Automatic annotation (TrEMBL):
<dbReference type="InterPro" id="IPR001926">
    <property type="entry name" value="TrpB-like_PALP"/>
</dbReference>
<protein>
    <submittedName>
        <fullName>1-aminocyclopropane-1-carboxylate deaminase/D-cysteine desulfhydrase</fullName>
    </submittedName>
</protein>
<dbReference type="InterPro" id="IPR036052">
    <property type="entry name" value="TrpB-like_PALP_sf"/>
</dbReference>
<comment type="similarity">
    <text>Belongs to the ACC deaminase/D-cysteine desulfhydrase family.</text>
</comment>
<dbReference type="InterPro" id="IPR027278">
    <property type="entry name" value="ACCD_DCysDesulf"/>
</dbReference>
<dbReference type="Pfam" id="PF00291">
    <property type="entry name" value="PALP"/>
</dbReference>
<keyword id="KW-0663">Pyridoxal phosphate</keyword>
<feature type="domain" description="Tryptophan synthase beta chain-like PALP">
    <location>
        <begin position="20"/>
        <end position="290"/>
    </location>
</feature>
Amino acid sequence: MTDLRPRLPSPLTEAADDRFARHGVRLLLKRDDLIHPELIGNKWRKLAPNLEAAAGRTVLTFGGAYSNHLRATAAAGRLLGLRTVGVVRGDELAGRPLNPSLARCAADGMRLHFADRAAYRRKTEPDTLGRLLRAAGAQDAYVVPEGGSNAAAVRGCRGLGEELRGRADVVAVACGTGGTLAGLAAGLGPGQRALGIPVLKGGFLGADIRALQDEAFGGPVGDWHLEDRFHFGGYARVPPELESFAADFEHRHGLPVERLYVAKLLYGLVALAEEGVFPRGARVAAVVTGRPEAYAASR
Ligand SMILES: Cc1ncc(COP(=O)(O)O)c(C=O)c1O
């Protein structure tokens, strides 16, 4: 993976923002979106240890028809000369033309296998997984779970926290599966806190993060908590208020703001700063885990 020349540690920059400054708080941006042009942000941190563990075997993973994780895995396969298989949710898609996201996976050499939704839902059960692997012709594959969050990925994300030791008081990240937060919290130093902003509605994430830390580290590590008020109704919901917030943030700071995760994170941090949640003098680092599609590397 180091042949791919990741930009690590990723840059940490300060953003002058009066919504923080008037409360005596400094906003920092941890630019994980600059780690690699194609394996962006937490994708690099999660995939790198898994691709190393795969040790040349075919890598099989799962995702919906627009999954960033599938795309990143396919790109990694092309860059590293690894065979990849993507199990896609929904066998009704099998006979249809590929959408641009899946077309890119296929162009990167990923073999796509469309699974019916019932089997896809049960893919973590050993029997169903076995059947899916046989149907995809990939019994010997190294399996990476949907979203890429397994113990190796969580341990990979610990590096994010380690890079920020002593450089921030609170480090905030948007959460889907919670794998990035689980690793980040484990890497931070004493006195530093990790804050997760879930982008999905549900309230189940705390238990998932504890389970991921058990699997990766054998028990709870680090100081983390979740602020569940900024999901805007659920995954991929981008109401006009969030859209205009993101456009304004881009304008103020020249930062391309990915809408499904990063916009919710930044919105949440501005709201918390305005509520006076952060003590005066606090350094709050926002992890920029993604980049809008329009800025994706053109090839
Ligand atoms: C841009 C971006 N940020 C954050 C996340 C959340 O990561 P996690 O699933 O580890 O919570 C994802 C998930 O894939 C993502 O694509």
